[in-house]
Design a protein that fits this description.
There is one protein chain. The protein is an alpha/beta fold. The protein has one domain: 3-Layer(aba) Sandwich (Rossmann fold), CATH 3.40.50. Helices cover about 40% and strands about 25% of the residues. It has 8 helices and 7 strands; from the N terminus they run αααβαβαββαβααββ. It binds S-adenosylmethionine (SAM).
Length: about 200
């Protein structure tokens, strides 16, 4: 009985953290359904001069981090995630793609990013913000770790979709309160011409 309760508890936590019962099942779904999203986001984020330090918050199994490091041979990508299984999948993916030396996976959360001030040129995140316990605090941390000329580009579902899963303050509301001079929120075309996701650019 205790074991069943433990398994159910793990599945509930995973559902809250990434909408699937386990990191492995999320990764399979991401490979099948989200490959086009990672390509679209990597194209949208570029071009890069070649030496940028990029942070991917809630990097999960590392699809976007690996896509960025593979496309741009000089950039270095840090992926932060609280889930060790997700980070293990990401490390394996980076090694397999031959970019393990430029993709590092770091345990942590958006609300307490484990990096010094002004560490990154670009901060990004896909489909993660609506899982953060405190999106306002997460965006404050984004500001702290960005270099003065840096930019954050965050892609997530609108609040009405996030609320179908759990209570959430909402992407749009958190962006409106974020401590940046420039806050731009737009629809992001994916899949194809559909604009299911929103993209916030903060600088
Ligand atoms: C739906 S998955 C998205 C993963 C990846 N960005 C992608 O697009 O495939 C959400 C990710 O956010 C992570 N996450 C949950 N809460 C977080 C938090 N407070 N700070 C940072 N990441 C968090 C989860 O562990 C999970 O890897």
């Amino acid at each position: 009985m205790g074991r069943i309760a433990g398994v159910l508890g793990d599945a509930r936590r995973s559902q809250r953290a990434f909408s699937m019962p386990s990191a492995g099942s999320y990764d399979i779904g991401a490979r099948i359904f989200l490959a086009g999203l990672y390509r679209a986001v990597a194209a949208d984020l570029g071009p890069f001069s070649g030496t940028e330090e990029i942070l991917d918050i809630g990097a999960g199994p590392g699809h976007l981090a690996v896509e960025l490091a593979s496309r741009h041979s000089g950039v270095r990508v840090a992926g932060v995630d609280p889930d060790p299984e997700m980070s293990a999948l990401a490390a394996g993916r980076a090694a397999e793609a031959g970019v393990g030396d430029r993709v590092r996976l770091v345990p942590g959360t958006a609300e307490a990013l484990p990096f010094p001030d002004q560490s990154f040129d670009v901060v990004t995140s896909t489909l993660s913000l609506h899982h953060w316990d405190d999106a306002d605090q997460g965006l404050k941390e984004v500001r702290r770790v960005l270099r003065p000329e840096g930019r954050a580009v965050i892609y997530d579902v609108p609040a009405w979709i996030a609320r179908l899963e759990h209570e959430h303050t909402g992407f749009e509301q958190a962006v409106a309160r974020a401590p940046f001079e420039r806050r731009e929120l737009r629809g992001f075309s994916w899949p194809g011409p559909l604009r299911i996701l929103r993209r916030a650019t903060l600088a």
